[in-house]
Amino acid sequence: MPIVSTTSHVSLSYSLRESYQKIENPSLRNNNNIDLVTKPSTSQKWSVAQYDHNSLLSSSTPLESYSLSKNSYNNKIAISKLLAGEDPSDQALKVIDAIQRLGIDYLFQEEIEKILRNQFMSFDHYTDNKHNIEDHLHDAALRFRLLRQQGYFVPAGIFNKLKDKKGNNFKTELGKDINGLMELYEASHLSIEGEDVLDEAKIFSSQLLTASMTCLGDDHRRARAIANTLEYPCHKTLAKFTAKNLFGTTSHFESANGWINVLQELAKYEFNQVQSLHKREILQISQWWRDMGMAKELPFARDQPLKWYIWSTGCLTDPSLSQQRVELTKPISFVYIIDDIFDVYGNLDELTLFTEAINRWDITAVEKLPHCMKICFKALDNLTNEISHKVYQECGWNPSHSLRKAWATLCDAFLVEAKWFASGQVPKTEEYLRNGVVSSGVPMVLLHLFFLLGQSITQDTVDFVDKMPGIITSTAAILNDENQEGHDGSYVECYMKERQGSSIEEARQNITERISDAWKCLNKECLSPNPLPATFLKACLNVARLVPLMYSYDDNQHLPSLEQHMKSMFYESVPM
Question: Which of 15, 65, 136, 420 is most buried when burial is the number of CB atoms within 10 A of its CB?
Fold first, then answer.
């Protein structure tokens, strides 16, 4: 259950779960008189600092409505004019790149789409034999990356022109073009299945870039830019979490002119404005969570609405999607709660009855179950009805059947893992991963997101999403596979038992290959044409981009990197 696992790996990690003592006295549990010493503490399961309402209200940025100031509006107009007037073969691509890295692309969506559409229409012109890609590696790789990111399929074969006469190896003289290599490395992350040249380009560019850092002497800024490129490639990183580092530097922007200062000032203002918006959203979510009373009714379960909100804010980065971020956090919270019921609280008989009740969606069926299960199901029923009502009011479509089915499917997957644990069975790797796609919680969350966005909802698209298409399963696979690096990594255990004599290193290498394959599938799914709206596709990508941050545990099972990002994003404004 990666999105909600109690550690940095899924709940099948037997040695860890054996330390979670279940509470076997029904009378104690039904009275909520739970011996907290015999169960895992919430801090053990997710150690993420929680900040109270006072810290939100007293921080420097006021809780004002999202809007552009006069100066920022003028900056936006200036950049829009710059994009409209630039030669699309030259500076415009660099401006778009800077806009995206600074996390303010939502302000220029129409301008960006117009430029890239024209670039796509004339792509052959830039890649014919009259143009030497070797002499313009940075621009060629940047054009390729931006077009792929926008959903346009352009052939990766253009990079074969960078190879020697035999076509076996990339030309060694490319090592002199550091800027070009950095962009080649960035472009390589947009590969799809069968594009070996991009796999080779990634290895080639990363090796040369790594070696180049030892030859830069005192040019620490340059070395830092290369290191950041290698560790945080644009396509697999959320600009929302990295843009702040670029507000006072030009080292990441090739051939930047005065426009970069205008963009940085606009990005600073946007950061502070969006931060205020996020604070208001956090207060809404905290109020909802407190009013619902789940933390009191289920003291064994996780109580971290801010952590859950990170998924929503990282998934939906456009400020205009405020309502959707708030609403999406609610089903995410129930994924965590139900996961805790399965992992920490219920015995197998209770979990089976609970799952059957969810499948029938029968409130009366849980009356004989422990108090926490009754409370959870009733609250889940209320939430599902509320979301269904909102979607129906806004879109004229009642999603209740799809949502209930998704919760049932999720609980079925949770129950499968509970049975594996209860019986001591170590499943086959493919069986484990197939079930893990569902128990990750990703399909259920993305289904809610699809309806909350309210875009392109038809019988055909609903049927398409209900069947968990590749865009959803590949996103879930990235999360499921990425989340296997615990001390007792459960997939590692399955892999080594199934392949007698294999090592931990081989199992981890297999995980790395699976993640790479899942990214290629996700990249392909995001190319046009696709029946799903672009906002939904981008959200799926963002979930995959969030995964490394959400599972960057230290030896104490803490998430220091995530905590630092939360502090920076929600509590530390940018001086203007």
Answer: 420
Integer Cα distance of 278 and 322 in angstroms: 8
pLDDT the model gives residue 30 = 39
CATH, residue 412:
1.10.600.10
In a domain, 357, yes or no: yes
Tokens of 129: 């034999």
- Together in a domain, 158 and 238: yes
Q: Before 529, cis peptide (omega within 30)?
A: yes
Both 476 and 500 in one domain: the answer is yes
Rounded Cα distance between 300 and 320, Å, is 36
Residues 17 and 98 in one domain: no
**Measured between alpha carbons, how far apart are the two ends of the chain, in Å?**
43
More confident residue, 47 or 258: 258
Q: What is this structure's pTM?
A: 0.89
Q: Tell me the C-alpha distance between 414 and 435, whole Å.
A: 9
What residue type is 532 in one-letter code? L
Q: What is the pLDDT of residue 298?
A: 94
Cα dihedral sign for 285, 288, 290, 292? Answer: negative
Q: Within a domain: residue 333?
A: yes
Q: Mean pLDDT throughout 73-81?
A: 90
Find the mean pLDDT for residues 512-517.
Answer: 94
Domain containing 130 — which CATH number?
Answer: 1.50.10.130
Looking at the structure of the chain, the number of domains it has is 2
Q: Which residues of 198-232 are buried (b: 16+ CB within 10 A; e: fewer)?
A: bebbbebbbebbeebbeeeeeeeeebbbbebbeeb
pLDDT one-digit tens code per residue, 238-260: 999 999 999 977 666 755 578 99
**Which residue type, as a one-letter code, is found at position 162?**
L
Q: How confident is the model over 96-124, as pLDDT tens digits?
A: 999 999 999 999 999 999 999 999 999 98
pLDDT tens digits for range 60-72: 444 444 566 767 8
Q: Of 65, 50, 522, nearest to 310 (Cα)? A: 50
DSSP 10-26: -TT-HHHHTTS-----H
Write out the residue range of the structural domain in which residue 213 sits. Answer: 86-257
Q: Tokens 């209320």 label which residue? A: 382
